[in-house]
Amino acid sequence: MTLLDGKYVSNQIRDEIKSCVSSLLSAGGKAPHLAVIIVGHDPASETYVANKLKACEQVGFRATKIALPETITEQQLLSYIDSLNHDDDIDGFIVQLPLPGHIDETKVIEAIDFRKDVDGFHPINVGRMTLGFSSFVPATPSGIVELLRRYGIVVAGKHCVVVGRSNIVGKPVATLLMQKGMDATVTICHSQTRDLKALCLAADIIITAVGQPGLLTADMVKDGAVVIDVGITRVDDPLSPKGYHLRGDADFDAVAPKCSFITPVPGGVGPMTITMLLKNTLQAYHNLHNNNQ
Ligand code: BQF
Question: Which strands sit side by side in the sheet containing 92-95, from one edge to the other?
């Protein structure tokens, strides 16, 4: 069993990005600039945003955090988005999800200029990705693909079972894996799937993105399978300094011995997600400065 060390691979890629930034600066350019809008004070979201800002600093990007109160109206949020759309000094931006219940996430995503949509959630980017055209690709799916690539794990012809059908992970990772060139055979499972166990047992590669610790048990995994665990659930743990620890969807201790490769939680897919957001921001910078798209 080999651990897919997302933290290590992330740091490798961040070094590559950092040297790109150095070249841009030496050539008299500005550093890429990411803006992050966060609404309210959800503790997990605050951690994720902090991770993103810290990663920007690590590679020499400029980063701007726009923290808005929970009570902001949808219209006010849309007008912040509009100002970022028109701000020539911002290469890309994201609105941290989830949003408070009184704000329509669909409207918010559609308000973002797709050329600055470094999360890749805008329908134009989703459509372009699905058609196999150039687009921003959501960070978690592209992080998963990059992790597989860097460990030399071939997906062509393999049976990939994706558990979870979210717009952020399940649907786009399934879309990427079945693209020409990736060439996987993909099955998507969800809460209404009958006999999840039988489907998972048939998989060469299992990607779980549910957010339910212990969902994937050892009896659901074929010997030698690859397991990519996208779950990151906070579980109370009074003995840990933060008062919680992170658990993936897989029962790691029992599943790992059966796997050829498995991602740990933390330190697997999570860091790759942050790194791919950096890559998208660098891409946005190049697109904007070279007048592409
Ligand atoms: C790690 C996210 C669910 C819903 C919205 C590193 C992150 C997590 C774990 C992180 C996530 C999950 C993010 C680790 C960003 C990934 O070391 O294992 C980084 O910051 N993530 C998000 O922005 O929104 C989410 C999960």
Answer: 62-68, 33-39, 92-95
